[in-house]
Automatic annotation (TrEMBL), chain A:
Protein origin, superkingdom: Bacteria
Topological relation to the membrane, as annotated: Multi-pass membrane protein
Regions crossing the membrane: 21-40, 52-70, 102-121, 133-154, 166-197, 217-236
Keyword vocabulary terms for this entry: Cell membrane, Membrane, Transmembrane, Transmembrane helix
GO molecular function: ABC-type transporter activity
InterPro entries: ABC-2_transporter_component
Protein's recorded name: ABC-type transport system
TrEMBL record, chain B:
Keywords: Membrane, Transmembrane, Transmembrane helix
Domain (DUF7088): residue spans on this chain: 36-140
InterPro entries, per the entry: ABC_transp_unknown, Class_I_gatase-like, DUF7088
Pfam family name, one: DUF7088
Organism: Saccharicrinis fermentans DSM 9555 = JCM 21142
Protein name, entry field: Gliding-associated putative ABC transporter substrate-binding component GldG
TM stretches of this protein: 9-30, 462-481
Length: 241, 499
C-alpha cells in the first residue's frame, strides 16, 4: 500500500507540474461551465429547474475525451524514456505501478469535479434541488471516470507512443460510450442483452437519476478491474519477453 | 511472478470470475434510492394496495426488442419494478415479457389488448428504417383486465401499474358530482381532472333542481360558475353540507378582460355564500414575482417580434401547507387568482393550503394591466398570501381555490394542457374529502417539479459568469502558485549559499 501511495503522490505531483494537465482541466471546466450556464439551449436557466442534469449530461462527454488525454502518457512515456526498466528494478510490483498510476489520475478527476461544486451550491441556493440525486450524479461521474482511466492505462501499457495510446483509449471508450448501445439495437436475444449491458450510458444514467443499483456498481467495478488487470498483464508480458 | 504458460490460464480465470459475478449480480441485486422523495422506490400506497390483493396478478409486458438503448433501458427498468412488485406481494404478481415483433400472432394479440403501436427509428443492415414497436402491458386479476397502452421513457411506471391494479380492485366506484347549469366547465373540458378521478370514481354532471338527490355523493365539485346562482340552488348545497357532504370550489372572484386591458370584480353569489361558510375570497388580483409570461408583439425597427415578458398576474406557486391534499405537489400555475381569508368563527377549522411566494402583492379591482411595466422587487411587499384553503365545520369540508380556470383544458381549438399539479390538486382534494387518500402520494410522485426561484436578470448574469469563471480561476490560481513556488526553489538552488 505504501508503494502504491508513493507512486500516486509522485504521479499526482507530476500532473500538477505539467502544463498539459492544467490545459485539460481548464478545457473540461470551460466546456462544462459553458454548456451548464451559458449555452442558451439546455442550460440551467433555460430549463428552469433546480437540477444538475445539464452538467452531468455534458460531463459525461467531456470526461470521455479528457481522460484518454490524461492517461495516454502514464505507461507509454515510461516505455519511451526507458524509466519503466528503472522502476521495475525497485521493490514494487507491476500491480502497484498500475494501481498507483490509476489512483493519481482518479484523484486528479476528483479535484476537477470538486471544482464544479460551485454549480451545485449556486443551483441549491436558487431552487429546491434534489441533493440525493446530485451526489449519486457525482458518484456516477467518478465511476465512469474510473472505468475510462483503467481502460486508458491499459491502452498506455501496450504502446510506447502516446498518440497511439490516446487514440486506442478513445476507440475502446467509443465502444462503451456509443457503439455497444447502437450495435445492441441490431441484435436480439442473449447477444442483444449482453451488448445492452455493456453500454456504459445505461449504467451511468441509472446512477445519475438517483438510484444506486448493485448491478451498476458491479458493472463499473468489473470494467475497472478488467482494465487494471489487463494493464498489469501487459507489463508482465513485456517483462517476460 | 507469472510464467508465460500460466498467463493465458490466469486471463481466462479472471474473465470467467468477472462474467460469473456479473451474471449473479443480474439475479441478486439491491437498489438504494437516494432521491429526496424516493421517486424510484415503491411507495407506502403501493405497498398497502399490494398487501390487500388476494388473487394473483398477471402482468404481460409487450416490449419490442432490438430497439435503441434507451428503450432497452426502459424494458429493464420495467422488469426491475415488476420484480419489486412480485417480492412485495409474496409472488402474487407474476409477469412475463413478450416480444410482439417475433410473431404475427403475438403482435395481433398485443394490438387486440389495446397496446399502442409506436414507430421508432432503428438501424438495420446499414439502413435507417422505421420499426413498429410496442411498449405496453396488460394487467389481469381474475376476469378483470387493464391495459397500459404505452410506457414512454421517463414515465412513472409505479403510478401506471398501481392505478391499474387499484382500478380493478375497487369493488364499486363512488360517484363524484360536478355541479352544472350556471355556465360551469363541463367534464369534457377537464380531461386531466377526469382522468385522475376515473381510477376511483365516476365523475358525473349534476344540475341543482328541486328533484336532485345529492345524497349519493360524498363530495361534489363546483368548477368556475359564470352566472349568478339562485338562492334555492345554494340552499340545496347547504342541505348537502348539513348532511355531512363535502364541496370543492374553484371560483373566479375577479375577471380579466385582456383585450380591454382591464380586470373587474365578478359576481356569482357563490363568493358571498362561501363567506358565510368561513372562507372569504377577496375582490383583488394576486400578483407574484415568481410568475408565468405572456407573449407581446414589439416593433424593433421595421420588424415586429414576439417577446415573452413576465406577467405577475400568473403566479407560479410552490409554497404548500403540510397536508395530504398538497402532499408531493411541486408547482401550480394560476391565472388571475384572488387572495383568501378566514371569515368564520371558532366552530370552524380553517386550513390555508396553497400560498404565494415571499414576494407577492394584491391589487384591488378594477385593475388596468400595464404589460410594459418593468416590475421591481419593491412592487411585491407582501408574502405568503393564501389562494387555496379548506374549512371544516361539523362533518363537512369545503376546499376553495380562487381561480376557476386552473384545471380547465377547454375544448375545440382552444384546448390546452394545464400544469399537471393543478389537476392533481383538484383530484387530491376530492380524494381527501372522500376519505380515500390512497393514491394522493403516487399521483404527485409522477410530476414532481423543481422550479428555480425567480431572480432578476442582473443576478442571473452574475450567477452565470461566476459559475463559468470561478472554477477556471481557481485552477489557474493553483497553477500560477505552484509555478512560482517551483521558480523560487530553482532560484534558491542556483544561489551560492545552497548546499
Amino acid at each position: 500500500m505504501k508503494q502504491i501511495w508513493i507512486i500516486t503522490k509522485k504521479e499526482l505531483k507530476g500532473y500538477f507540474d505539467s502544463l498539459m494537465a492544467y490545459i485539460l482541466i481548464v478545457v473540461f471546466l470551460g466546456l462544462s461551465g459553458f454548456f451548464t450556464w451559458l449555452y442558451g439551449n439546455n442550460d440551467v436557466f433555460f430549463i428552469n429547474r433546480a437540477t444538475m442534469q445539464p452538467f452531468f449530461g455534458i460531463a459525461y462527454w467531456t470526461l470521455f475525451i479528457f481522460i484518454p488525454a490524461l492517461t495516454m502518457k502514464q505507461i507509454a512515456e515510461e516505455y519511451k524514456t526507458g524509466t519503466i526498466e528503472l522502476m521495475l528494478t525497485k521493490p514494487v510490483s507491476d500491480w502497484q505501478i498500475v494501481t498507483g498510476k490509476f489512483l493519481s489520475t482518479f484523484l486528479l478527476i476528483v479535484v476537477s469535479l470538486i471544482l464544479t461544486l460551485p454549480y451545485y451550491i449556486s443551483i441549491a441556493s436558487i431552487g429546491p434541488i434534489d441533493h440525493g440525486s446530485v451526489w449519486t450524479g457525482y458518484l456516477g461521474l467518478l465511476l465512469m471516470s474510473a472505468a475510462y482511466i483503467s481502460l486508458g492505462i491499459f491502452a498506455s501499457s501496450i504502446t510506447s507512443n502516446q498518440i497511439v495510446a490516446f487514440l486506442l483509449a478513445l476507440i475502446i471508450g467509443i465502444f462503451f460510450q456509443i457503439l455497444f448501445g447502437i450495435i445492441a439495437s441490431a441484435f436480439s436475444g442473449v447477444a442483444g442483452d449482453f451488448l445492452s449491458y455493456m453500454d456504459m450510458r445505461y449504467h451511468y444514467q441509472s446512477i445519475t437519476r438517483g438510484v444506486v443499483d448493485s448491478k451498476n456498481l458491479i458493472y463499473f467495478a468489473s470494467i475497472i478491474m478488467m482494465g487494471l488487470m489487463a494493464s498489469e498483464l501487459s507489463l508482465v508480458k513485456r517483462n517476460l519477453n | 511472478m507469472f510464467k508465460k504458460s500460466q498467463l493465458k490460464y490466469y486471463i481466462l480465470l479472471v474473465i470467467g470470475i468477472i462474467v460469473l459475478i456479473n451474471m449473479l449480480a443480474s439475479r441478486f441485486f439491491f437498489r438504494l434510492d437516494f432521491t429526496e422523495d424516493q421517486r424510484y422506490t415503491l411507495s407506502e400506497t403501493t405497498k398497502d394496495i399490494m398487501e390487500g390483493i388476494t388473487e394473483p396478478v398477471t402482468v404481460t409486458a409487450y416490449f419490442s426488442e432490438g430497439l435503441q438503448p434507451q428503450f432497452d433501458q426502459l424494458r429493464n427498468d420495467f422488469k426491475d419494478i415488476l420484480a419489486e412488485y412480485a417480492s412485495l406481494s409474496n409472488r402474487q404478481v407474476v409477469y412475463e415479457f413478450v416480444n410482439p415483433n417475433e410473431d404475427q400472432q403475438l403482435e395481433q394479440k398485443a394490438v387486440e389488448a389495446g397496446i399502442q403501436t409506436v414507430m421508432i427509428e432503428a438501424r438495420e443492415k446499414d439502413q435507417s428504417t422505421t420499426k413498429k414497436a410496442y411498449m405496453g402491458a396488460v394487467i389481469q386479476i381474475g376476469e378483470a383486465s387493464e391495459t397500459i397502452p404505452f410506457i414512454q421513457p421517463g414515465a412513472q411506471m409505479e403510478y401506471a401499474l398501481t392505478t391499474a391494479i387499484k382500478k380493478m380492485t375497487v369493488p364499486e366506484k363512488a360517484a363524484v358530482g360536478f355541479i352544472s347549469g350556471h355556465g360551469e366547465a363541463h367534464l369534457s373540458e377537464m380531461m386531466q381532472v377526469t382522468q385522475g378521478l376515473d381510477v376511483l370514481y365516476v365523475p358525473e354532471e349534476v344540475e341543482l333542481s328541486d328533484s336532485v338527490n345529492l345524497s349519493k355523493y360524498k363530495t361534489i365539485a363546483w368548477i368556475n360558475p359564470q352566472d349568478t346562482i339562485p338562492e334555492e340552488h345554494l340552499a340545496i348545497v347547504d342541505a348537502f353540507l348539513a348532511q355531512g357532504g363535502n364541496l370543492f370550489v374553484a371560483l373566479n372572484k375577479v375577471d380579466a378582460q385582456l383585450n380591454q386591458g382591464m380586470g373587474f370584480s365578478k359576481y356569482t353569489a357563490l363568493g358571498k355564500w362561501l363567506e358565510g361558510k368561513g372562507i372569504k375570497v377577496e375582490d383583488n388580483f394576486v400578483m407574484d414575482v415568481n410568475c408565468g409570461s405572456v407573449t407581446v408583439q414589439q416593433r424593433q425597427g421595421i420588424f415586429t417580434v414576439n417577446r415573452p415578458i413576465n406577467f405577475p398576474y400568473l403566479p407560479i406557486l410552490s409554497n404548500f401547507a403540510e397536508h395530504p391534499i398538497t402532499s408531493g405537489l411541486g408547482s401550480m400555475v394560476l391565472q388571475f387568482a384572488s387572495s383568501l381569508s378566514f371569515s368564520g368563527d371558532s366552530t370552524m377549522n380553517y386550513t390555508p393550503l396553497v400560498f404565494t411566494s415571499d414576494k407577492s402583492t394584491t391589487q384591488a379591482t378594477p385593475v388596468y394591466f400595464n404589460i410594459q411595466k418593468q416590475w421591481e422587487e419593491s412592487d411585491f411587499p407582501m408574502s405568503k398570501l393564501a389562494v387555496a384553503a379548506m374549512v371544516e365545520s361539523d362533518n363537512s369540508k369545503i376546499v376553495v381555490i380562487s381561480d376557476g380556470d386552473m384545471a380547465i383544458n377547454g375544448s375545440g381549438d382552444e384546448i390546452r394542457q394545464v400544469q399537471p399539479d393543478n389537476a392533481n390538486f383538484v383530484v387530491n382534494a376530492i380524494d381527501f374529502m372522500s376519505d380515500d387518500t390512497g393514491l394522493i402520494q403516487l399521483r404527485s410522485k409522477q410530476v414532481k417539479m423543481r422550479p428555480l426561484d425567480q431572480i432578476d436578470d442582473a443576478d442571473k448574469q452574475i450567477l452565470k459568469w461566476v459559475n463559468f469563471a470561478l472554477p477556471i480561476m481557481i485552477i489557474l490560481g493553483i497553477g500560477i502558485y505552484r509555478n512560482q513556488k517551483r521558480k523560487l526553489i530553482r532560484l534558491k538552488r542556483k544561489g551560492e549559499s545552497y548546499v
